[in-house]
Write a structure and sequence with these properties.
Layout lengths: L2 H23 L8 H13 L1 H10 L24 H22 L10 H26 L4 H13 L1 H18 L7 H25 L4 H26 L11
Helix pairs in contact: 1-5, 1-6, 2-4, 2-5, 3-4, 4-5, 4-8, 5-6, 5-7, 6-7, 7-8, 7-9, 8-9
Length: about 250
C-alpha cells in the first residue's frame, strides 16, 4: 500500500474521535487549553500498546499462533471469552486513566472538577483513534465503501463507548475533589463501573455478532449512558471549588 494512502486512511481513522472530542469540549464552561487537551489525546494513543501487551499476557499458550514465541506460563484466558473481555476492558480503562494522570492530573490548568471528565474523555478518544486507524487499515482490502461503513459504525459504537466509559470514570475522579478522604474508593468505583459498562458492550457485540440485535442493544446502552454522562456534566457545572485536586 502506498505511503500516501496509509496517511490518508490513518487521518480518516481519527475523524470519529475528533468529532466526539469537539462535541464534549463544548461541555466545559471554561474550555481547557487546546495544547493540553491534545497532549492527553496523544498520550491515550501512545499508551495504547501497553493495553495490548497486558491484555495478551493472560492469553493461554497455544490459543493464538501469533503468541507462541512470547506467551507466558501465567496465561489462562481463552481469546474472546467473557473472562478475557472483562480483563481487556479493565486494562483499557486503567491505561486511559494513566494517560490523564501522567499528563494533566497535577497541572495548574487542571483547576475545576469538570476538567476530570473532559480530560478523561480526551484520553479515551485518543485510545479509540488508534483502534479506528488499525480497523481502517484492515478493512481497506475489502473496498472503500466497506471501510466507510465500518468507520460509521465505530463512530456511533466503539468510539462513543470509549468516550462515555472514560467520562464515567472522570466523574468519580471529579467528585473525589469534594470527598478527599474517600478519593481512592471513588476512583476504584469509577474504574469498576467504567469497566463493567465497557465489558457489557463487548459482550453484546460478541453474543449477537452479525445480528441486528447487537446494534439494537448496544445503541440502547450507549444512549442510556450518554444521557447519564450528560446529567453528570450538569451536576459538576453546578459545583465550584477552590480546593486543589488531591494527589492520586
Amino acid at each position: 500500500m502506498p505511503i500516501y494512502q496509509i496517511v490518508l486512511l490513518s487521518a480518516l481513522g481519527f475523524v470519529p474521535s475528533i468529532v466526539w472530542l469537539n462535541f464534549y469540549y463544548r461541555e466545559d464552561c471554561h474550555p481547557e487549553p487546546k495544547h493540553l487537551l491534545t497532549k492527553v489525546f496523544l498520550m491515550g494513543i501512545i499508551l495504547s500498546p501497553l493495553a495490548i501487551l497486558f491484555q495478551l499476557l493472560l492469553i493461554k499458550c497455544g490459543t493464538l499462533s501469533i503468541l507462541e514465541k512470547i506467551c507466558l506460563p501465567i496465561g489462562f484466558l481463552q481469546p474472546a471469552s467473557p473472562e478475557f473481555l472483562l480483563w481487556s476492558a479493565f486494562v483499557e480503562e486503567i491505561v486511559k486513566f494513566y494517560a490523564v494522570r501522567l499528563i494533566i492530573l497535577h497541572d495548574p490548568a487542571f483547576d475545576e472538577p469538570i476538567d476530570a471528565m473532559i480530560y478523561m474523555i480526551a484520553a479515551g478518544l485518543g485510545f479509540a483513534a488508534i483502534e479506528n486507524v488499525l480497523v481502517v487499515l484492515q478493512t481497506t482490502p475489502d473496498g472503500f465503501s466497506v471501510t466507510i461503513n465500518t468507520l460509521i459504525l465505530r463512530f456511533i459504537g466503539a468510539t462513543l463507548l470509549h468516550a462515555l466509559a472514560s467520562g464515567l470514570l472522570g466523574y468519580f475522579l471529579a467528585i473525589s475533589w469534594f470527598f478527599q478522604n474517600h478519593r481512592r474508593k471513588l476512583l476504584i468505583t469509577g474504574i469498576i463501573l467504567a469497566t463493567m459498562f465497557h465489558f457489557a458492550f463487548n459482550m453484546f457485540i460478541l453474543s449477537f455478532e452479525g445480528q441486528i440485535y447487537a446494534l439494537i442493544y448496544t445503541t440502547i446502552m450507549l444512549l442510556g449512558i450518554a444521557f447519564l454522562v450528560s446529567i453528570l456534566f450538569d451536576r459538576l457545572k453546578s459545583r465550584h471549588t477552590a480546593v486543589p485536586m488531591p494527589r492520586i
